[in-house]
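User: I need a structural model of AB hydrolase-1 domain-containing protein from Ranatra chinensis for a docking pre-check later this week. Nothing fancy, just the predicted structure tokens so I can convert them on my end. Input:
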Amino acid sequence: MNSSSQPPVLFIHGLLSASDQWLIYGRDHDLASILADNGFDVWLGDLRGNAYSRRHITLSPEDPRFWNFSFHEHGYYDVPAMVDYIVGVTGHKRVTYVGYSLGGTVFLVAASSRPAYNSTIRLAVLIAPYIFRPLHLSAILQLTFHVIASVMRQWKTLKVFEVFPRSNASLAINRLFCRPESRFMPLCLRLYDHIFGLTHELNENVLLDVISTFRAGSSAKTLYHCAQVMYANSLRYYDYENEERNMRVYGRPDPPEYDLSKVTSPVSLHYSLQDSFVNAENVDKLAHRLPNLIGKFVVPSSSFNHMDFMIGIHARELVYEDIFTIVSKNYNE
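Assistant: Understood. Predicted structure tokens for AB hydrolase-1 domain-containing protein:
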């Protein structure tokens, strides 16, 4: 086994996205590139079910059983498997973790449900982690969650298991509507505004890449689990909505919360005040439950939103430079 002298950093993307989410602008801007160019051994992870993670030992994506997972499986199986692999390949005993949105959520799932892995995490940088009910969810997203909830209740009949997959057809539609020179660009911008909110941070020249990267696919069950978190305002295990089945799985009629007091890894939280998915009150609630919090870091901008953490024109100076300082300082201590 060849060991690497560079400290390893694992990046995990957000909901419906993939590892290429970290590579939108290029080497001089993206956080993964900044860390790599400063001597860190960067690993870009892909959670099961997205465009780059569709292989299984025995199942194919055409088999409904392939899609029987939510973000619990991402945290309980996928993240620990990636950490184990990185530790085995590099020879380093600990890994720095960077997770955006649902990527932050699955770290909390991993560290709380499999607390032994806290000893292998040097630091967890959680960027706008989704764990409680957003205060101002847009109408289109509320409708999406309601549709997914209805679909999941009838999934055996409707046979809908995968949602928003990346395909040649979807990429062609993206190019039709979201190219900078397209006459349909105003519609693309309107949809983006309904979901995330338009800010001066958006570079319209990269919007096509943003939309294409964002739609990388996942399971309907994952979206339904996210909807359950929203409705319950609690980071809980998956609710089978059947007391008998919940009793078999959890020993109680309703799913338990993830015990965040077991997340003993050092954690830094990064958030903004204009994020429709993660508000300051929720960050405070999370911060009080984490026993080894390094700190909360709010973006000093009045318009910075959820997607701007990935594609904001000023994301480097407003967010990434702070993260680089925290990661570097933590490694040197």
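Before docking, keep this in mind: The chain has one domain: 8-332.
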